[in-house]
Each structure stands twice: as structure tokens, then as C-alpha cells.
Design brief:
By secondary structure, the protein is an alpha/beta fold. It has helices spanning about 25-40, 60-70, 90-110, 120-125, 135-155, and strands spanning about 15-20, 50-55, 75-85, 110-120, 130, 135. β1 (about 15-20), α1 and β2 form a beta-alpha-beta unit. The mean pLDDT is about 95.
Length: about 160
């Protein structure tokens, strides 16, 4: 029979870094609040969570990389919102931010949860930051806990 490993949602004893973009903070602040609420509800101590504010989404990867390099965190959660304007600039920012965050996870073997919304309108972003589509900050917290716990199981087998 196969050995099945699942991460679960117990954050007790875990350390988290949350890197949050200040640009479009009317979106990122509710995402952060929801993320923090889930982490603490699931057992993480508030003193074991560090929040790092950066100017925009494009700056998230460099701070996430520094956090990963330190080896202190079980997971890094990246929160941002990039909303389409009149040019394709938003797509460049979103794509490079995603690429940077993914490369950090692979290089350091630590979950780097990508929850940088890239939406065509502010209304769609609001819907995903506590509106009718839920709150992606909550999803990010659950993904961080579960992935970190699965990585622990992989190390222990």
C-alpha cells in the first residue's frame, strides 16, 4: 500500500514570513489581515510571524529571497495586487514577480506562496480580498501551512 502524506493545517510551532506589497494596499491589507487570522487560528504564535512591507509586487521576490536565505522560516507568503492599466506594464510586473517567487521556492526548498493578484479591474481584486470571491489571504495561509508540513514529512521519510 502506498504511503500517503498530507500536510494538514496545524501551524503550531511554525515560523512564517509574509511579504506584502504596499501598492494597492486597499487590496493587500485585507489579504494580510485574513492571512494573519488563519495562521493564528491554526496555532501559529503572533511572535513567530514576521510581516515585511515592500513598495510594490516587483519588490516581493528580493525580500522573500533574503527571508528564505536566512533559513528561519517554514514558509514565506507573498501578497500583492497588480491591476491592469492602460498599458501592458501590469503583465510584466505580474509575470516577473511570479517567476521570482517560484525560483526562490525551488532554490531554497521552502514554500513561497504566490498570492499576487493580477486582475483586469480593481473590482475583481476587491472580490478576491474579502469580497464575493472570498479572501486569497486565507488561501495563502492554508497553502503555506500544508506545504510546509508536507515538506517536513518528506524530510522525515
Amino acid at each position: 500500500m502506498a504511503h500517503v502524506h498530507e500536510g494538514g493545517d496545524d501551524a503550531t510551532g511554525m515560523y512564517f514570513a509574509i511579504v506584502v506589497a504596499r501598492f494597492n494596499d486597499f487590496i493587500t491589507k485585507p489579504m494580510l489581515a485574513a492571512c494573519l487570522a488563519i495562521l493564528e487560528e491554526r496555532g501559529a504564535a503572533s511572535t513567530d510571524i514576521d510581516v515585511y512591507w515592500v513598495p510594490g509586487a516587483f519588490e516581493i521576490p528580493v525580500v522573500a529571497k533574503r527571508a528564505a536565505h536566512g533559513g528561519h522560516y517554514d514558509a514565506i507568503i507573498c501578497l500583492g495586487a497588480v491591476i491592469q492599466g492602460e498599458t501592458d506594464h501590469y503583465r510584466l510586473v505580474a509575470d516577473e514577480t511570479a517567476r521570482g517567487i517560484a525560483s526562490i521556492a525551488l532554490e531554497y526548498g521552502i514554500p513561497c506562496i504566490f498570492e499576487v493578484l493580477a486582475t483586469p479591474t480593481a473590482e475583481l481584486a476587491v472580490a478576491r480580498a474579502g469580497g464575493e470571491s472570498g479572501n486569497k489571504g486565507e488561501d495563502a495561509a492554508y497553502a503555506a501551512i500544508e506545504t510546509a508540513r508536507v515538506l517536513t514529512a518528506v524530510r522525515e521519510t
